[in-house]
Amino acid sequence: MPSFSTILKSLALATVLNLASASPIELAPRAVPTTACKPVIKPTAAAPTVPASGNDPDLPTTDLALQYVAIGRGTQNYTCAGAGANSSATGAIATLYDVTSLAYANINMVNAMPPNVVTMPVPAPGSTLMTTAGPVPALGNHYFDAASTPTFNLSSAGKILYGKKSGDVLAPAGANAGPAGTGAVDWLQLVAKPAPYVSNGVSLVYRVETAGGMPPACTKAETLIVQYAAEYWFYN
Ligand SMILES: *[C@@H]1O[C@H](CO)[C@@H](O)[C@H](O)[C@H]1NC(C)=O
Ligand SMILES: *[C@@H]1O[C@H](CO)[C@@H](O)[C@H](O)[C@H]1NC(C)=O
Ligand SMILES: *[C@@H]1O[C@H](CO)[C@@H](O)[C@H](O)[C@H]1NC(C)=O
């Protein structure tokens, strides 16, 4: 049995060995980064890739850099001229919630959100979106301007995109049909609308992983408001 002093000696030796094996960089005082105290806005890991719809051809690809991934929650609006008519789309209104960091960390959790949040009430303005991954802060708003231009006002980032559709494919067959059971709206790509529109900081967006938003059949002259949720991927 080793004596008490033998144990002490071996512990001391172990400490010396640990110190000796530690790298000099670890022992040097740490440089204070100039960005200290600023929140980390963008992860440094490789950007996630926008989901594929499975259509052939699928939406056009992009070489631009991913800026934001957002969950949109709102309504798609339609008008019906009468029973048996085809409804016509009159625009959409939605709040965008910032899930960029989560998209880098766990895209599967983000992809699970639209079918989940589409069944929940639209949060009050200024409120966070409650998700299975916790509360998500607002990034901005999506709406159609007076000239029916799809607009993405990323107000909390000071960026804006006036869109023009550049790609349109059907949602996958298994997409969530929404609370009304009417089906998932198409997956889209939109680019920046030319002058006089001036987008800023974002120049392309995809709408993917849609849940709900398709209109029911027209049964009379009326305005239809259909709940939907989707992912919006912004690039620049
Ligand atoms: C509705 O749209 C379909 C497909 O575009 C077309 O074939 C049909 O004639 C339209 N129906 C009416 C009532 O306009
Ligand atoms: C769509 O419906 C919402 C109500 O859910 C309304 O606030 C909005 O003004 C409508 N937008 C359009 C473009 O019709
Ligand atoms: C974008 O949203 C912010 C905050 O609501 C608002 O102050 C700003 O006027 C909006 N910008 C445009 C171009 O609508």
TrEMBL record:
Q: Which organism is it from?
A: Lachnellula suecica
Q: What is this protein called?
A: Malate dehydrogenase
Keywords associated with the record: Signal
Per its UniProt record, what Pfam families does this chain match? DUF3455
Which residue positions does the secretion signal occupy?
A: 1-22
